[in-house]
Amino acid sequence: SQQGEEDPQALSIQEGENATMNCSYKTSINNLQWYRQNSGRGLVHLILIRSNEREKHSGRLRVTLDTSKKSSSLLITASRAADTASYFCATDLYFQGAQKLVFGQGTRLTINP
Amino acid sequence: GAVVSQHPSWVICKSGTSVKIECRSLDFQATTMFWYRQFPKQSLMLMATSNEGSKATYEQGVEKDKFLINHASLTLSTLTVTSAHPEDSSFYICSASAGVRANQPQHFGDGTRLSIL
After folding, report:
1. Residue B101: exposed, middle, or buried by beta-carbon count in 10 A (0-12, 13-18, 19+)?
2. Which residues of chain A neighbour B91 with C-beta distances below 8 Å?
3. What is the pLDDT of residues B26-69, one digit of tens each?
4. How far is A18 from chain B (nearest CA, A)?
5. B34 interaction partners in chain A (CB closer than 8 Å)
6. Measured distance CA(B54)–CA(A42) in Å, rounded
7. Order of strands, edge to edge, in the sheet holding A61-66?
């Protein structure tokens, strides 16, 4: 079953504004990751936040994690047209000694110039 | 670093054809590779996990005989869609990891768009 659920499914904002995407999950995790996917391309790893971390920054990206609510958010500040993409959260799932990533449904972000 | 190359990027073929997709880790040894399938505007669904030198582990509902996976070396895994039919048309993405321990990132290829006529 799909572990991550993202909200909103689609987001359209003006260039320069901030974009916030949310992710909820159901089971315990070791870490949560955020990925970006440009149309028709593979995924690019953005940031990983461990279960014992509450906030992490990378450039214009800010990720928060609330394990009590089983949720995470990705904030992109001062958005640019090049940020237009789909963003996925992924949680790790260990099964039979192997790690697997379970992806959320994604948020399609459109930055309007 | 951590570049994963996937080939071909796009393939169109007739129904009944078998199609092979390659996934290569260019600058690291990938002990584990993953194959995903993605339908338009949907998320990635894991198909199988392959470890170098051993048989792939398939997710529930994925036909082993339909999607043959080989991971013969630490830098190459292949996915062969056998006797492909139009319902197999999809975007297939591989990823590679240097291990399966916690916090070991997966590095993704650019995907292969498969269209079966």
Report:
1. exposed
2. 40
3. 988 888 899 999 998 889 999 999 888 888 999 999 999 999 99
4. 23
5. 100-101
6. 26
7. A5-7, A19-24, A71-76, A61-66, A55-58
